[in-house]
Each structure stands twice: as C-alpha cells, then as structure tokens.
Amino acid sequence: MRTVGVEEELLLVDPDSGDPKALAAAVLARASHDDPGQEVFEKELFGQMLEFATRPQTEMADLGAEIVRCRKEAARHAGRFGCAVAALATSPLPVSPSLTVNERYRWLAERYGVGTRDQLVCGCHVHVSVESDEEGVAVLDRLRPWLPVLSALSANSPFWQGRDTGYASYRSRVWERWPSAGPTELFGSPEQYRRRVADMVATGVILDEPMAYFDARLSVRYPTVEIRVSDVCLCAHTAVLIATLTRALVETAARDWRAGRPPPGHSVSLLRLAAWQASRSGLEEELLHPVTMRPHPAPLVLRALLEYTRQALTDLGDADCAEQALEEVLRRGNGAREQRRLLERTGSLRDVVTECVRHTQG
To answer: Which keywords appear in this protein's UniProt record, sorted alphabetically (predicted)?
Structure first.
C-alpha cells in the first residue's frame, strides 16, 4: 500500500489580538530542547510561520491522529512564548513579514524583491510514495487536470492584509508569483523531467532544483511525488480528506499508466484557467471539469473526482470515509466559507483569527 505524508505550514499569532508573531526561531529552539532528535518542526521563509511534517503512514486514521498531534505539539511549544498556532493559509489581519535569517532566504529576497515579501502564505503538501521515477513522472502527467479540484476543496485564504479578496484561495494567487510555480507541460519520461528542471536552473532565474515549484513534482528528498496545490486546511479532518484523495489519484494515475492509457493532453493555458477558477470560487460556484475543461457546479466536479478514484479508494479501504468526509465538506464548506461565516457573525477579523486558533486544534 502506498504511504502518504503531509507537510503543514501554520501561522504563529497572538491569541488575543490575532496579529501574526515572528517567534518561529524561539519556538523551534524550544521544540528542539524538549524533544531532541525529533525533526518534526522546521523553519520557513518568515518568522511568523512554523512547518511540521508527519511520518509516512498507510492508514488514514493514523495520519489524521498524527496531524492532530503535531498541531497540538506546535500549539504547546508556541504557548510557552505567549502565542498560538492557526491553520490559516493567509493572515486575515495586516502583517509585515519578518524574513528568517538564512543565506537561501536572503538570496530569494534580493533576487525577487517585493515578490518575496508577499509570500507569507501557508500551504499543505502531500507526499505519496511511488515505485520509481518512471512511475512518478507518469503519475505527474496524469494528475495535472485534477489538481485544481484539490485546490478548491482546500481553499482557506479569503482575506489578505485586512480585506476580503473575493477569492476562496488567495494564497494560490500569491504563490503563482514565483517564476517557476504552477502547472506543467507533459514530461513523458524521467529524463525529460530532469532535463527541463536542469534547463530552468541553467537560466539563473531560479536558484536550484528545489526551486522548481511545480504544482506537483518528484520530491527532491524522498521516493515520492509531492502535490503542492492545497492551502493549509483549517480543520485536520479536511487535511486527511485531501491526503486520502491525493493518494487515490496517484494510485489511479499509476494504474492508467500501466494499462497504457495516455495522459490527458490539456494545455498549460487551460490548466492555468482551471487553477484560477478554483482559487476564485472554491466550492461556491463553478469549477472547470478536468475531463472537458468546461464549467460545472463545484459539487458535481468534486463528485467526479470521487468517481474517478473510486476503485483505488475501495482497494485502499478509504471509499466510505472519503465519501462521507466529502459530503460533509460540501455541506459545511471549506475554510474559506468558515472564515467568511465567522466574519459575518462577529464583524471582526481579530475574532476570525482567534476562532480559527480553536478550529486548528479542534
């Protein structure tokens, strides 16, 4: 059975004011002191962010338990410094990001200027094991049109610098400002994949291979494909649903490859439009259907994803849980809908943040 792991980026905030706090260095030092040898938490581009990575899991219940545990551990370490963690993909309140002291991050700031300072955004990356680079590239080629659906499902960033953006996932629009971010053309083989990445690095526009910020890529460190389109999810159970569907997509794509079925040939131009539509509407309006690239109601497209992966979900033992979790998200909404609902109820973005702190560990 394919293993799956999750990386989540969390926002460090003042529990009373909701303002982001640049305390990541102190929190990481405390975590390292309390749990020596445990490399769960990592620094990120800005001091207001904290990242953790789960261990690879085969059972989704175990993955969910670990996400909850890591979130609670992050909250415990942050609490020692008077701050809290919030699973928010952007800060609803205005913030001036504080760059982490690091040679790589200084290079990014000097190279990309103000574009780097806008990148205080928190994502969720899902790693799914593959048997070889050949299988991995075949999977990447076949995943492409389904990735915007995952983005819409996870959307959790409607606010930016104190204002409603009109987007469900504004994080994804900010992330697209990196020159190497976004959907990719078909690769066809590991050799073509490596050649394309090498050509990108050779331009000097990006620093190295880890800066190939494709929506989905071969992991630089692990024998996995890394799917990078999701906002960090407000609730842990939504993150588990994203991971469940992602693993089923990888398994379905691998089976299609083995059966000799070619990947969909959608152009990058259409894939970019699908990604934009997903970030704009989330679950509220229409998405581009991955098969036809024509607009359909979001619930219909989400259920199409479920049907496309159903055999893999069934074989992995995840079908019933995935269907129930998806229907629950369609009924209650994703993080973007919940944040807007909280603002409508409280009238305060500060209260939105403090309520989201509670949701993060709930």
So the answer is: ATP-binding, Ligase, Nucleotide-binding
Q: What is the pLDDT of residue 38?
A: 67
> Where does residue 178 rank: exposed (0-12), middle (13-18), buried (19+ CB within 10 A)?
middle
Q: Which residues contact 82 (CB under 8 A, 6 or more apart)?
A: 14, 15
Residue 323 CA to residue 104 CA, distance in Å, equals 42
Residue 218 banded pLDDT, cuts 50, 70, 90: very high
Domain that holds residue 246: 4-361
Place of tokens 């990006």: 206
Between strands 216-218 and 41-42, the pairing is: unpaired
Taking the CA atoms of 68, 74, 77 and 82 in sequence, report the sign of the dihedral they define.
Answer: negative
Residues 346 and 355: beta-carbon distance below 8 Å: yes
Number of domains forming the structure of the chain: 1
How is residue 153 written in tokens?
Answer: 């499902």
CA of residue 299 relative to chain centroid, distance: 20
* Domain CATH number, residue 346: 3.30.590.20
